[in-house]
Amino acid sequence: MKFNNILLIFFVTIVTFSFIISNVNCREFDFSEHPNVQVLSSKNINSFISSSKPSVIVYYGKIADQYYEEENNELLFGVLDLDTDIKVKNSHLIDSTPTIIYYKKGAEIAEFGGKKTRSTFEKFLENPLAPIKSSTGPGSWSHIESQVAHLNVRNFSSYISNHPEGVLVMFFTAGCGHCTKMKPAFGEASQIAIEKNIGSLAAVDCGVSQKVCEKFKIESYPNIYFFKDGKNVDKYNGDRSVNSLIEFLENNNNNNNNNNISSNSNKKSKKVKNEL
Fold this sequence. Notes:
2 domains, alpha/beta
């Protein structure tokens, strides 16, 4: 493959991966020189991500992606050329390159999003479940300080499943004026929710991830749904203020605590009866 664009150069260290950006003109990169980086295809990708060790795969194409590595015993590192393996592109719903995904025991855990720098990549590997940052574009939230996770057709299900405590998801479009007005409050609420440990907030751009929005029959914006234990359990009908959003999550959290107390009481009662 010829490389004539900005290169993403990954360094895999004994503790973590990191990368820097460099320029290299028209050359081919030989992954065989780096045996700890596995070159993947549709034939071996499933066995690779099903390993007992977590793994990171970089899906690349014509953009010049160049990788270096050193020994790492905690994480598997793989690369896959989407230009030569369309099957994987379709089955794993990869719509752009480079795309970097963290897997664990066969399941996608998180996608590395946002600005691609050495420090942000290191932070991602330290905590793959941290909120997924917004990319640039018409629907970007990059100008808003928040802990909102930005989801798409590929990472939506995995994020919801990995946050069983509860996720409040805002479905929006870039051209929606009401959505734009609500973003600051939603962003502020996301930070408070993380601090109070009462759940998390996420957003889906329906102009980009139409399939997700079609699944939940989203026809107006913004539309907010609450997901718990991986399922859509409620629609948020409160006002679009920080206080109302937090109150909704707190009420849900209190209900969880009450249910847990009731469940524990029933277990203790049954235990006493059995002992008698």
